[in-house]
Write a structure and sequence with these properties.
With 486 residues, the chain is α/β, with parallel strands linked by helices. It folds into two domains: 222 residues, Alpha Horseshoe (Leucine-rich Repeat Variant), CATH 1.25.10; 249 residues, no CATH class. Helices cover 53% and strands 13% of the residues. The chain has a six-stranded mixed β-sheet, sandwiched between helices.
Length: 486
């Protein structure tokens, strides 16, 4: 039974908050093909919300399931791009005391992120974000956040993503209201020091993006970027990759540039000229994709000609939507997880970046030449934007297509272990008769997604002959393995 029919056929005679809440959540998240939800889904969810407004009013007054009510209020304010916020803001104004009485120091110290205090804070910040600066009503919302600023700051520092967003709202409004020195110092602490976990920084940038607060990013990030770029270890190649991000359409690009600059700084502190060497030898420019420790270990292994058996990850230079910069939680993205799992079997992983098919070949041959005592590649992973007929490496359309396979494999086949797996983290490369199937042969297995999708989980396991295998869960696609059994 379709979910919409289920709601209609099971509608109570007197619908309560749970009915409206479930229908609202289904419409806003599960019916939408995108995140944030599309405008059509937002409109439908908003209609449901307005229908339930009287019931929401009763629930706030009767203390019945107030958390779910406040959650919906915050979501309506956060996702309604058509800016039809007045009825919702008026509703919060009408029940301001009912909402704010739920915000307590004790509630802030609870670990329950869906508790009343956390939901009420979400409502307060959502209303403040949607009010015009000249609206006199906004002052009491801002002062309420100021009252609990220390607790919010402390929670964000411990990795509470929701509190990081609340903190972002407070500091933005504090800066706009003239408190530029103190708010500015705290923004710098969040963005440019190691005192905040990456997950909180990412949430902070997400909040900036969703509210289009470009001026705050420009004021602080622009100056910091200029300072870093003047350092000699940020060469022209890295700057070029950063400029590629700067041309992106979302403020999350700034987050990725920040990560690259921060990783570069840490590498230089531990290994002077390390960034330049990583760039020249391995083609690394998007340093923020990887952990400092993994990059330094790889450079040390190069210097000594390490003979540990290894596999290779080839990452594309081009990444128009930051799909491969997923190391947002203390470097626990796909690359880091693969490296960690491979080490459990006593092997290593080498990382290279390529911007065209020539580099795709030459960088792999260079690894084989330097680590010749380690034997042939145990596996190959390709992280690049793809389609059925190939994958893209460069910023200006440089790609590897099915038509390139014969010549490329002629050069690379000698350095690949027999029965080695190649894993494509590249959209649609796994369709039948697509790139992954054409890449496979009697000595090479291929894995790829059969439609546009991003990997969700990757498991590395041991195979016969000392090789490694991969099980990949793609978000919206099936893992296809080739060659096909005939």
């Amino acid at each position: 039974m379709e979910q919409d029919d289920f709601f209609e056929k099971n509608k109570p005679i007197t619908p309560g908050i749970s009915y409206f809440a479930d229908q609202f959540t289904h419409t806003l998240y599960y019916k939408s093909a995108t995140y944030p939800p599309g405008l059509e889904n937002q409109d439908e969810a908003y209609t449901i919300f307005l229908k339930g407004l009287d019931k929401f009013r009763d629930d706030l007054n009767s203390e019945n399931d107030a958390s779910r009510t406040m959650s919906m209020i915050a979501q309506v304010l956060n996702f309604d791009r058509k800016k039809q916020w007045s009825p919702t803001i008026d509703f919060v104004e009408e029940h301001f005391d009912n909402v704010t009485k739920r915000i307590t120091t004790e509630g802030l110290n609870e670990q329950n992120m869906i508790g009343e205090t956390h939901q009420a804070l979400n409502v307060i910040t959502a209303v403040l974000d949607r009010m015009e600066p000249s609206d006199s009503r906004s002052t009491r919302y801002f002062e309420l956040l100021r009252k609990y600023k220390a607790e919010i700051f402390d929670h964000a520092k411990k990795g509470d993503d929701s509190m990081a967003k609340d903190l972002c709202s407070f500091l933005y409004h504090a800066y706009e209201r003239g408190d530029k020195q103190e708010a500015g110092d705290q923004i710098k602490e969040i963005l440019f020091t190691g005192s905040f976990p990456e997950s909180s920084k990412y949430s902070f940038f997400k909040k900036l993006q969703n509210n289009e607060w470009e001026n705050l990013v420009y004021i602080f990030f622009g100056k910091e970027m200029e300072k870093y770029i003047k350092n000699p270890y940020i060469n022209s190649d890295v700057i070029s990759s950063l400029e590629c991000y700067a041309e992106g359409t979302t403020l999350l690009n700034y987050y990725e540039v920040h990560k690259t600059l921060n990783v570069c700084r840490q590498i230089e502190e531990k290994m002077p000229n390390g960034c330049e060497m990583l760039n020249k030898i391995f083609g690394i420019t998007h340093f923020g994709r990887y952990s400092v420790e993994d990059l330094i270990e790889q450079l040390n292994d190069w210097d000594k000609g390490d003979n540990t058996p290894y596999g290779v990850i080839v990452s594309s230079w081009d990444d128009w939507n930051n799909a491969f910069n997923d190391n947002r939680d203390e470097h626990q993205g796909t690359v880091a997880k693969i490296i960690k799992q491979v080490k459990r079997f006593g092997y290593k992983t080498r990382i290279i970046e390529a911007r065209n098919k020539e580099e795709f070949v030459m960088k792999q041959l260079a690894l084989s030449d330097r680590f010749n005592k380690a034997g042939k590649f145990l596996f190959l992973c390709v992280a690049a934007h793809g389609e059925a007929s190939g994958f893209r490496l460069g910023r200006y359309g440089e790609r590897v297509g099915i038509e390139d396979i014969p010549l490329i494999k002629k050069d690379l086949a000698p350095i690949y272990s027999s029965s080695m797996q190649t894993v494509f983290f590249s959209c649609s490369t796994g369709v039948d008769d697509g790139f992954a199937e054409e890449w496979s042969d009697s000595k090479i297995e291929s894995i790829g997604p059969d439609k546009p999708s991003h990997e969700k989980e990757v498991e590395v396991f041991s195979r016969l002959g000392g090789l490694l295998g991969f099980r990949v869960v793609y978000g919206k696609a099936e893992q296809k393995r080739y060659p096909r059994l005939r």
